[in-house]
Amino acid sequence: MASPFSGVLQLTDLDDYIGPSQECIKPVKVEKKPGKAAAKIRIEADGSYFQINQDGGAQKLEKAKITLNDCLACSGCITSAESVLITQQSHEELCKMLTLNKTAAPDERKLVVVSVSPQSRASLAARCKMGVLETAKKLTAFFKSLGVHYVFDTTFSRNFSLLESQREFVKRFRKQSEDKKALPMLASACPGWICYAEKTHGSFIIPYISTTKSPQQVMGSLIKGYFAEQQHLTPNQIYHVTVMPCYDKKLEASRPDFFNQEYQTRDVDCVITTGEVLKLLEQEGVSLSDVDPAPLDTTLSGAAEEELTSHSGGGSGGYLEHVYKYAAKELFGIQVDTIQYKPLKNKDFQEVTLEKEGVVLLQFALAYGFRNIQNLVQKLKRGKSPYHYIEVMACPSGCLNGGGQIKLDSESSKDQLQQVERLYESLKTTIPEENWTVKELYEQWLGGTESEKAAQALRTEYHAVERASTGFNIKW
Amino acid sequence: GGARGRGVSPGPVPGGGHHAGVSPGQGWSCRAVLGEGHQRTVRRVAWSPCGSYLASASFDATTCIWKKQEDGFECVTTLEGHENEVKSVAWAPSGTLLATCSRDKSVWVWEVDEEEEYECVSVLNSHTQDVKHVVWHPNQELLASASYDDTVKLYHEEEDDWVCCATLEGHESTVWSVAFDRSGERLASCSDDKTVRIWRQYKPGNEEGVACSGTDPTWKCVCNLSGYHSRTIYDVAWCHLTGALATACGDDAIRVFEESASSEPQQPTFSLAAHVPRAHSQDVNCVAWNPKEPGLLASCSDDGDIAFWRYQRPEVC
Lengths: 476, 317
What we know:
The complex is a heterodimer of chains A (476) and B (317). With 476 residues, chain A is an alpha/beta fold. Chain A is 37% helix and 14% strand. Chain B has a 4-stranded antiparallel sheet, with no helix packed on it. Chain B has a 4-stranded antiparallel sheet with strand order 5-6-7-8, with no helix packed on it. A 4-stranded antiparallel sheet of chain B has the order 9-10-11-12, with no helix packed on it. Chain B starts with 41 loop residues before the first strand and ends in a 7-residue tail after the last strand. Chain A: This is Nuclear prelamin A recognition factor-like protein.
């Protein structure tokens, strides 16, 4: 079965071949007994391995397990079997958790929160032939029927990601003469891109990447931080699930940077894809369109009415648009209402230019998909990149076309994508600066935009992955 | 130990006949040694159609593009991106496209513009194993690749991306190389399964009634040359001047096949026209026909030699 991870991630680490000098960074520690003879291994009928000692005694050998965290750090993996990589995060894991929660003692019970991405919602809406608001309400009802307590929308946390990105860009633009690596600033919301960048280009590319957290991880900070406090719970007493359009988000959630050491809990405990939600529905024998809608949870977003909103700038979050408009205003006092995109070599590589009296003030680009990421990094390495900001996404056509979205065999993928895009864009768009709840959270909970707490909650770092020697010494 | 000859690439030859001389390398002199480009084995070299550029594919995961100068060659650019060993490189007849393939299972298509800037146009992940060789159709922008996954795949451009439009299954082991005939209607593949297979293209609406899906042609195996080779066949070369098919084999031999006079288009027959059992003292890795001089064949081997052969089609074939 083809790997479900984005093409960009696939190319970097999953390979069935292991060269003798490639080592898994997580060897299983085995107690070695001194002895001259080579170990004899016997395989039982059930597939378990026993080591036969010299004296004839048998010892059952431990199965080597690789966790998602290990996968992220390793540059040569033992197996590309997806089952090994995603055992900790799946709809089955969620079900197990919900079942346990039902019978758990009151002090062991967790508050279950599900944050749904707008891309997943649009995909489900297309599949179930409903509008997005109806889908959101029915999804809320469905999750609650399983034992989930709150269902939120990551569009809310995306406000923070957009605001932080905007501010970060302007800061970097202003100091570009002192810092050679301030620009171009590269978007950071896509984990497929981040993992690839860390592994393949490491310390060269990391300084260019925006330090803003993705909407998923900002939501993690909000739920395990602010929301937990509001509910008078500790972070580990909440089980936070996100619904995402791709599998790469599972890797993002398991990054050590997003693990709360104090409470030994992840900011996002489990990521399930849009497709896995469909599996859940099928498992429960539920057809989403038949579910009675439930009111939307507005506790977090503070929305007065039941209203869904979105951000402009496409299905991957709108980073380019927001940074561009903000920068044009802040840096040059220019008000931009509509953005003209100029497609270049292919539809996943587009350019936007701000010009005044023949002078180029800002030059931004969208680069989606591996081939465009390749070209962009190569140009950067040769010092030939003319851009100030690039919205980088691993999937061709962006997040709406993520590897975890629902794909039907009955229709052409182009038509399906168009439907999902239409549904995604059917909502009214709002400007992050005008969101009162977001403003309040910055002031009350974070203590200002420049505070230590804001940095902790909204920003992150990247780590270059050291490559083990990759078996180049072998003669072929 | 010592050098292993891995590939030969016949570029535009300034003319003049050469034969496998009594004294080694008679008539051939080394003009340049390009030692500053690669850190590991150079597995394949390919001349551009115009003859001014040489591409070299290396195990160091890069492909260098060398430009011919008056006094040698200059590396004008290095194509990076493959995860690991690059196994082959080939120029499209148009001269503006280049393909590379690697053990990372992918095939990359690159485009070069007037300013000699190379950009990746597509990354194709259709194969499930190491890709050994890539070759372009003689007159269309159609690309073929051979892999350790036992298949040959074909690719072309659709809208703004490249896609795999056909998978040729049949070989029972690694396919090491492929070659198109002069017209491009047929493809020869050679494999670790010791056979050479000939495939033929059937376009939609063909009169033989072969089913096609949509607008893409179907490729069917129309001939299987088995029982001639005793080891892995590493390379196959189809002469565009005479139609002769040469093979490079792990049994140290070079063989040439010719299509029989009685051969039918839907069921072609080939017979063994020449066989040099000990062409080299080790595995023959590559064979290449001179594009201008009929019957002139070059071969190279693990024994470190490059050999030149004069082949003449026997009277009765």
